[in-house]
Amino acid sequence: MAEMNTLMDALVDEVRDLYHAEKQLVKALPKLAKAASSDELREAISSHLSETENHVGRLEQVFELLEEKPRAKACAGMAGIIEEGADALKEDRRLRRWFDALSPSMRKGLGNLVDQAKGAEIDRPSVNATVKLSSVITTLLALTSAVKELIPLTK
């Protein structure tokens, strides 16, 4: 870390950190947009990419005003966020491949069980709702165990 003797040193250091964070996002957001599971999400990420590119330009203007070269200082926080996003995308792809490998009847059955579970989540103070939820959970666990034997989750 550079030695900071003045408030100006601290300001430049923070601007460099922000610059690196925004530059990392400019690289990562197109990958996230490409992997997005819906058009709405893809459009939101693309819109954010445009905003992020504007942020990079503004930070370059700040460097110019401070009479400093635009230079980044590693931003570990943003790197961690991007890494978590990449891990989530890998998990999503892995689960999608698993689901795609299910037969149409298994997919339908799984969908019906999820719908039942959603119905059981409605706040009803009756014993029937609790029994229904317990049955749904038991059935889901049995289905999950059977499917795991049929289709191993592989990377």
Give a written overview of the molecule:
- The protein is mostly helical and 155 residues long.
- It folds into 2 domains: 97 residues, Ferritin, core subunit, four-helix bundle (Ferritin), CATH 1.20.1260.10; 54 residues.
- Helix content is 79%, strand content 0%.
- It has 5 helices and no strands.
- Helix 1 packs parallel to helix 3 and helix 4 runs antiparallel to helix 5.
- The C terminus is likely disordered.
Summarize this structure briefly:
Helices cover 79% and strands 0% of the residues.
Key features of this structure:
155 residues, mainly alpha, elongated, 5 helices
Q: Span between N and C termini? A: 39 Å
Please state the structural category: mainly alpha
The quaternary state of the protein chains shown equals single chain
CATH class of the largest domain: Mainly Alpha
CATH topology of the largest domain, which one? Ferritin
Poorly predicted tracts of residues? 120-125, 146-155
Whole-number total of structural domains: 2
Number of strands: 0
Secondary structure: helix percent? over 70%
